[in-house]
Amino acid sequence: MTDDNSVRGASDKQHQRKRIVVRRNGPYEPEPGIAIVDHLGVPIAAEAPVRLCRCGQSQTKPFCDDSHVARGFADGKDSRRVPDKLDVYAGQQAYVFDNRGTCAHSGFCTDRLNSVFHLGEEPFVAPSGARLDDLVNAVRRCPSGALGIGIGPERNTDLSDVSRPPQIEVSKDGPYRVTGDVVLVDEDGAPIAQNAGASQEHVSLCRCGSSLNKPFCSGMHCNVGFRDPVTDPLREPTLFEWAGGYPALLDMTRIFYSRYVPEDPLLGPLFAEMSPDHPERVAAWLSEVFGGPRFYTERYGGYRRMVSQHIGKEIRPGQRALWATYMVQSTDDAGLPSDPEFRAAFVAYIEWGSRIAVENSGPDAKPPPNMPVPRWWWVCNATPAARPSAGAGNAQAANEVSVALPSPDEAVQFERHIRPLFRPMDRNSMLFAFDLWKEEDVARHGRQILARLEAGTMPCDGAWPTERIALFARWANAGSNS
Ligand code: HEM
Ligand code: SF4
Ligand code: FES
Question: Iron-binding zinc finger CDGSH type domain: from which residue to which, for each copy (predicted)?
Answer without folding.
Answer: 41-74, 182-227
